Amino acid sequence: MERLTAEQRRALAMLATAGRNGVPQVLLSAHGFDASMIAELVNHGLATLAAEKVRAGGKLMAVGKVTITAAGQDALAAEG
Q: For each of the chain's 80 residues, which pLDDT tens digit applies?
């Protein structure tokens, strides 16, 4: 992957602060990150996306959780 865009750096920084818990994809969307940009990070191995089941209002629902990878942390550190 070429240099990170400002938006990608901002997304990776948010994921880095979340640690192993990751960030729900809807929260990333609420912060202005679109699904295609997140998919690009995942496709380049900088983040992972996994479905996680959570209970809300008595109902079980699937939520996408995005987590930074070691490669993502390295890319973020390299960008300074």
A: 678 999 999 999 999 999 888 999 999 999 999 999 999 999 999 999 999 898 989 999 998 999 999 999 999 999 87
SS3 percent helix, strand, coil of the chain, rounded to 5, is 50, 30, 20
DSSP 8-state assignment for residue 4? P
Residue 56 pairs with which residues in a beta bridge?
59
Structure tokens at 75: 């890319």
Decide: 12 and 31 in contact? Cβ < 8 Å. no
Distance of CA 24 to the CA centre of its chain: 8
Reported as half-sphere exposure (CB side, CA atoms, 13 A), residue 48 has a value of: 11
